Structures are given as structure tokens and as C-alpha cells.
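Q: Please design a sequence for this.
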């Protein structure tokens, strides 16, 4: 008969623990695999409907496209269209969660699944098309340069060795960084910071989407848009996470529907025409 000593008991206990551990390790992959399979069975649209809200990234400080009014409510051209998208997707325009975003983090918000759709004056570029999926465009845009009326910038040559103000991650940032390294760029995260810097004289001019600087100059008569159309004409479109084909296809169909119903033109009449008046025809701005 084998004598059971304290040492033997320890060995038996250790063997039991190891056996249980191996069993647990063998079960974990199966459990994880089941969870993964379960997750992939839920489509992006089904998940949005399950959540009961669609998360849409918009600007908070870029009137007339996306901004907060005096009551803290989201307003603007992008916001108007986004509300209709929420209504078509969930049956109620109030079932939208507006997520405030900056130009520099629009891509990251989609990658990190912080938003379902971006409606933040998002210009389509080849670089961005590599990392997000753009839906059909709804607006045309180019770059513009705004400066003080008493020292107007009317030609890029005037900016050589001067400080130009831009927002990080914008097409203006990309354009001047690549095409005009002789111009010093001062970059900011928020539009309010950039325009405050212009008012404070931290730069001789500010470059941004021409639609934005034209609107801003109307509200600030001491400034003028000396360069109204710079670079190639670009398109603005909403975007979804890269590879989210189901949501992309649905969004494209909905944008077609909204255009046919005149919703995009109505959004223009409500938010953009009061700013631009009859000086810029709607057909020159809206993609229909």
C-alpha cells in the first residue's frame, strides 16, 4: 500500500489544478468563437435599430454647416440632412445622437466606432478614401483665403514667408503643406480658435473651405475673402466606417431619395441661402 504523505497530497492537488486549468483553456476558445459568431450575425443597421439611436458626427462651430445655437441645439446644413437620415432609418428624426467632432478626428471617430456616420462638412480626398467609405456627395466646395480688409491677401505669392492659419486635418492644411512649403502654417483644432487667431493678428490670413470663409466674412465686415476659389473643386459627402457596405449602400439610397424629394434643396434654402443670398446660385453649390 502506498503511503500518502503531505508531499503526495501536494502533488495530487497540483495535478488537479493543472487539469482544471487545461480544461478551462480548452473551453475559452469555444466560448470566444461563439461570441464572435454571435456578434457577426448582427448587421450594422440591425445594431443601430437595436440601440434605438443613430450616432452622427457633426461640427459644433462651423456655421452654417454645423454649429450649436444659443440654446445649445445642433443647427446647420449638415444637421438638417442628418435629421432626415435618422428619420428614414429609425422612423423619428429625434432618434439621433449628435456627436460633436473636429476636422482632425473625423476619421478616428469612425475607426473607433464612436459614430455611425459623419456629416461634418467632410471633403472627399484620395487619402481619406483609403481609410473611410464616402457616400454620394451633396455639396461642392473649393478653398478660400480670408484676410483683413486693410491688408487683403489676393494672391498666394503674398503669403511667402508669412504665417497662414489653418485647421488641422482639413483640405487647406493638406493643400498648403504639400503645394506651398514656403508658407508658414499655424494649425488649430477648432474653427473658433483659428478665426480668433486671425482676429488677434497671429497670422496674415486664414485658409479654409471657401463656403465657410465667405459666410464668416459676411458676419465680420472688417475682413474680406481675397482668394475665393483655390485649387480644384472638391465634393463634400457623408462617410461611414471603412468596409461597412451595408450602411453605405443604405445611405446612398437614402441620399438619392432625399434629393428626389427636394430635401437637400430645402436644407439649402433654410441654412445656406440666408448666408449667401442670390450671389451664389444653389446649382453651383448643391450636387443633385
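A: Design:
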Amino acid at each position: 500500500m502506498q503511503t500518502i504523505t503531505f508531499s503526495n497530497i501536494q502533488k495530487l492537488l497540483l495535478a488537479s489544478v493543472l487539469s482544471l486549468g487545461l480544461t478551462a483553456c480548452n473551453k475559452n476558445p469555444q466560448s470566444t468563437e461563439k461570441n464572435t459568431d454571435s456578434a457577426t450575425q448582427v448587421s450594422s443597421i440591425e445594431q443601430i435599430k437595436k440601440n434605438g439611436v443613430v450616432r452622427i458626427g457633426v461640427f459644433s462651430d462651423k456655421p452654417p454647416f454645423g454649429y450649436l445655437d444659443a440654446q445649445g441645439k445642433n443647427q446647420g446644413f449638415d444637421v438638417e440632412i442628418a435629421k432626415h437620415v435618422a428619420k428614414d432609418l429609425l422612423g423619428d428624426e429625434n432618434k439621433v445622437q449628435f456627436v460633436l467632432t473636429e476636422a482632425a478626428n473625423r476619421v478616428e471617430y469612425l475607426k473607433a466606432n464612436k459614430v455611425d456616420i459623419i456629416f461634418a462638412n467632410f471633403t472627399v480626398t484620395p487619402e481619406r478614401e483609403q481609410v473611410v467609405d464616402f457616400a454620394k456627395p451633396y455639396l461642392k466646395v473649393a478653398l478660400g483665403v480670408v484676410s483683413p480688409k486693410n491688408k487683403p491677401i489676393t494672391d498666394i505669392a503674398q503669403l511667402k514667408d508669412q504665417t497662414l492659419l489653418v485647421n488641422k486635418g482639413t483640405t487647406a492644411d493638406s493643400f498648403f503643406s504639400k503645394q506651398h512649403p514656403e508658407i508658414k502654417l499655424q494649425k488649430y483644432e477648432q474653427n473658433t480658435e483659428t478665426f480668433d487667431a486671425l482676429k488677434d493678428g497671429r497670422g496674415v490670413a486664414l485658409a479654409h473651405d471657401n463656403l465657410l470663409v465667405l459666410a464668416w466674412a459676411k458676419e465680420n465686415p472688417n475682413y474680406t475673402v481675397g482668394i475665393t476659389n483655390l485649387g480644384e473643386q472638391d465634393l463634400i459627402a457623408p462617410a461611414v466606417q471603412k468596409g461597412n457596405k451595408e450602411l453605405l449602400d443604405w445611405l446612398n439610397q437614402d441620399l438619392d431619395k432625399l434629393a428626389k424629394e427636394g430635401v437637400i434643396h430645402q436644407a439649402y434654402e433654410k441654412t445656406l441661402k440666408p448666408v449667401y443670398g442670390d450671389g451664389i446660385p444653389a446649382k453651383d453649390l448643391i450636387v443633385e
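Q: Thanks. Anything notable?
A: The chain has two domains: 43-139+234-282, 141-230. The radius of gyration is 26 Å.
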